[in-house]
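We close this part of the discussion by returning to an individual protein. Part of our work consisted of pairing the sequence of a single chain with a tokenised description of its backbone. The amino acid sequence and the backbone structure tokens for this protein are reproduced below.
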Amino acid sequence: MATLASDSDQFSVPVIDFHSFLNGTDDQKKSTAAQIKDTFQNVGFVYLINHGVPGKKVEECFEWSKKFFNLPSETKMLAPHPPGASHHRGYSGIGRERVSQNVFDRDAIEELRRVPDNKESFESGNVEDGIQPNIWLPEDKLPGFRGFMEDFFVECAALIRHVFGAIALGFSLPPTFFQPFHSRELYQLRLLHYPPISEHALLSGEKGRLDAHSDFGTLTLLFQDDVGGLEVERPKDAGKFMPVRPIEGAVLINIADCLMRWSNDSLKSTVHRVVAPPIMPEDTSEHGEGDKMTSARYSIVCFAAANPDVVVDALPGTWGEQKPKKYEPITAGEYILKRMEATY
């Protein structure tokens, strides 16, 4: 049964119990899959509870994230993100990235980068990924970090397989339909830290957290702390954003651009952003006269993408005489590289 999570009666992200898909009867699986498809068609986001990733492992991942980002800068830079966008692994410092929404002109990108994202990140992925091998700290700098992150990636990849099974079933396709297209599991597991930032810097545009954008793979998992700050564009109300409050024990999942294209726009890739959370006096400190600091924010994201050589063309059942194909075929690798080059 879907319930609603929102800070406003005007907008809601459905909350769906995924247990019935993972462990239910065939009819229960179909019912849950239909709910998920409906949500992805209309909102683009869904909260799943009872999703199969142990809560203790999620909590431990947040603990490892804080340990990593608390390291000295020179230690974190022992695992640096390489230049460019072809190798998306390792540590990126504050201001390294500037997310943009479908901006590909070089001059326009450089203009946007004058106000970079005020965040830092660490990314890893599948240990068998030969295209983007992982970049780790020396083991003695943070013992146990690498082993845990490799294990957590496996948990996220399993959940992604199940979600794709539900999407396929929702389209009356075999639950394994998407597996061959994602067989290499070339995903990005990203730890994110948004440091405290002054209210004045945010409101004046001097600094930003994460500007409005949509993701560009196939789907995204998000585990967030209890700080808040995520906002999602309201369906059929472009440019208007509503906060999406964190839900303990839930994972937030959204459709990304490549899957929206793949579904011939049957599924919705929704624009979202990270801004300052509500500033509560008891949780803030003064920063200069009359200026307050937001709380630090941590999140864990896993970006799924299809194998690079997969040709993205309209899915069966999403096109026909009454609804022709909207896009030319393109490989998943070509599409994602184009988007990454506009980010880094």
